[in-house]
Amino acid sequence: xxxxxxxxxxxxxxxxxxxxxTLRLIAVMLVFHFHAGVFIxxxxxxxxxxxxxxxxxxxxxxxxxxxxxxxxxxxxLLNDLKTFYIRRCLRIFPAYYVLITLLLVxxxxxxxxxxxxxxxxxxxxxDKGFSGTVVHFWxxxxxxxxxxxxxxxxxxxxxxxxxxxxxxxxVASVVANFGAEKQFSDRPYYMLLxxxxxFLLFGCLAGHAQLRGWTKHVSGTYLLIAGLILExxxxxxxxxxxxxxxxxxxxxxxxxTLSAFGIALFVLGLWETRNALILxxxxxxxxxxxxxxxxxxxxxxxxxxxxxxxxxxxxxxxxVVNGELVAFxxxxxxxxxxxxxxxxxxxxxxxxxxxxS
Length: 357
Prior knowledge:
With 357 residues, the protein is mostly helical. The chain contains 16 helices and no strands.
């Protein structure tokens, strides 16, 4: 049995530490609270941290995917890609496609072709926005587009040149961000992979650095604190933009690069830290458990608000109960059932497609 400061070597290779599950929980709760304002109070913009939750997910994805790909590379490109994609599909597709198919059957799935092909973010961008219970699917589309393109680019690049590949992609994403701000300020350009890709790519760079041992002589706790400081500076810029400019102009003042770098340092520091207090908090079992089912929480949470509205409609007396709490309980129950009776059972198929040792 491993201690909280140790991890099984096989899990290490596959890129797992339970403290990252708690970070997933924090990320999904930021999104949840933002959408509570949208679906219940109709003033979601009053809570400015919802986007931060999605950005944390992006950085985590880049960090873990890079570690998985590099740590398990065998030299057989086709087999490595096949194993990676099968395992990714088993984790992401089943719950997503069951949900959107159910929505399609009941007539509540707008733009089904774009949803089924993970191009919904592009559709929202072209339409200059969209609101509704499926709008959060845009981030899943970004991740799938990233998964489609990145693994091949990484694995065909020689190991010694990968840092240059990531640096070049980061520069391209930063340029795309500034270009989109000027050309598409009337559209949700942040939903496009070239723009928000820098969050994924900073995560990739952090994962690559960790595997290469570049941070082994640096305290993980110091990295974590440095990330918090950078994120605090970024959030200060956001608050300044909200204070002195209207809501639509806020993005002009937001430094996505600073935020992405800060989150990446925090993730890397959380992975490397040996601080007993930090590990005790982030390895707290109820937190890490909820983080483990965070994919379901993210998928289902808007519908938790819908179910809460139905409950209030059928039972008006229930309106006195905090609406966000009711929606949260509904979402957690739904996510737990999905995990234990569906997702985890599908994931057992991963055993048939294990990475080569």
